[in-house]
Amino acid sequence: TKPVKDVKTVGWSGGRFKGYINMYGKKSAARYRLERSAFPAEYEDNPPENEKASNPKNRYGDELADSGKFKYTKRHIRGIFGVAWKAAGSRVSRHDLDCINPDLVDNWRGVPTYVLIAWDINGNIQKSWETRACLRDRWGKKDADIAIYEAAVEAEDRYVQVKTGKRPAKSRSPSVGLAQGHVRKQREKSLGMNRSSPSRSARTTRASKSPQRGTNTLEELRQEFLDNYLELLGVQEFADLDISERRDCVNAWKEEKALQFPA
User: CA-CA distance, 34 to 111, in Å (whole number)?
Assistant: First the structure.
């Protein structure tokens, strides 16, 4: 079968809706859809079991601790890197976003959706396709649905920008996560729940040092970003990257910093 340019199947789903998660474009600026056909078509003959998104064994979000509670919580979520959902028509288009817009959808049963989540698994970043319910269980229905929609919008924007030449395609580099504001907010809420309420004197002392605290926060975020970036590329040090990869890393950090610390 002649391969279709710029599209590749990266996962599949069985059960009520048999479909294939198809990636359009480069991984760093991709759009995803859940479709009836795989690319290449041969994928359908023997789809990899480890890429079956509808199998709970392939989803970190479904793992349970001995207590029976989720093993990985909102604090383990480090990023959203893709949203795949059933398209509105036979052709993929930006209009498909209406299908997952919380302001327009009343019945979600007809909108199968998978979210590519980056998890912190024992200090290592691992990605898995998760269900909409996974994010709802951790963030709440309203916040999760909004984050999923905004992540999809952002992904569509990136895809179009690459196609029109307004954004360089970084095929070898991981993109900055989608809807990072939501991810950061939810993680901070989770970490905050584990801290005891500080005393008034502690809050006063901390407030008096706010400029230094802001500097530390930026530096900590930069180091955290770099650690995750190198982890995703599978290297130990920034020096291990070639010139092109270093440039991509710096540009990705500028995007992240602008998002987290707007001027």
Answer: 10
